[in-house]
Amino acid sequence: MLSQRCNKLLELAKKDGIDAVVVTSQINRRYFSGFTGSNAILLIAPGKRLLLTDFRYTIQANIQSKGVFEVIEESRAIGMERIKNELASIGAKTVGFEDASLTVREFKAYENLGAELVPCSTLMANIRMYKDAYETEQLIKAQNIADKAYAELLTRIKPGMKETEVAYELEYLMKKNGAEDKSFDTIVGSGENGALCHAIPGERRLTHGDLVVLDFGCKYNGYCSDMTRTIAIGEPCDELKKIYDIVLNAQLKALAALKPGITGKELDAIARDHITEHGYGKCFGHSLGHGFGLEVHEAPSASIVGETPFEPGMTITVEPGIYVEGLGGVRIEDCCIVTEDGYINPVTATKEMIIIE
Ligand code: ZN
Ligand code: ZN
Q: What is the pLDDT, as a whole number, of residue 76?
């Protein structure tokens, strides 16, 4: 698996005239070498797979890279000299680097490698956009854990609880059910706070008449889940009920259209048009969805600029929302994996409005 990923990288790099690639971000290091530690540089070139790391990680790197990479103990500063020599030894004239994550300081050090630097972040993102069977399995497991945690949360959540308590409870339940970590900071937006798309859980207590936006996810073997449900604390007012139905139908319409060939832009438009037709177009200010994998936000995107047609193996969330300042918000999100004839949606939680009394 790791070998295949590296071969794919070199195959595509070669098409762009790149002789070797240096991988420096933690996520891409993990993807290509399996190594999860905090410090390493990978050099991937034809016939060469080097993983340079410091003393703390050599044993771990040898285990995780499964013999695919030669692990070399080097400090990062010395590592640059080593890479320069390796590039010279194979006659590499061009070297791919991670333009999206390298700092200016690191970039300056790279300028002395003796090879022309070619930005490669998009190329790596495009490779990671296609999930293989192993990755699909991890993504589904992560979502299964989040689903279980949510089901348990519904038996514990009560009026009067603080948003922070709800967030901690969810995070505890995800870990209890087997998650390594949360995949992003849990969002709990109750009442008027629900109008803040990325509400930070605060001291506000769940109150009768609130809708509560719960957006959360966890990691399993490094792979991220992402789901949103909006629940009611007691009977909500008519406008909130109306908004809930509009968002739900927008989400269901978009899901019904999700299949290989449709672009992110087209999918986004289906949900957006539905919301606009019902008079809330200005209250849906974010994109419909994003890919997810080792990172919770990855390519492709379902947005007004999402030109990529979906293909089997790609992931996409479908998460329309309506946010009304002073009143509240509704978002409903599933995380889907595109297949040959449609998609897998591992989110099992109901989308019927749940009312907690
Ligand atoms: Zn989410
Ligand atoms: Zn999302």
A: 63
CA of 157 relative to ligand 2 center, distance in Å? 23
Pick from 206, 204, 199, 195: nearest CA to 231? 206
Per-residue pLDDT, 22: 96
Check: CB of residue 188 under 8 Å from CB of residue 201: yes
Q: For residue 264, report the distance from its CA to the centre of ligand 2, in Å.
A: 14
Contacts of 253 (CB under 8 A, 6+ apart): 270, 271, 274
In this predicted structure, what is the pLDDT of residue 78? 66
Residues of the chain with pLDDT under 50: none
Between the CA of 48 and the centroid of ligand 2 the distance, in Å, is 37
Pairwise CA distance, residues 289 & 258, whole Å: 12
Burial 32-68 (b: 16+ CB within 10 A, else e): bbbbbbebbbbbbbeebbbbbbbeebbeebbebbeeb
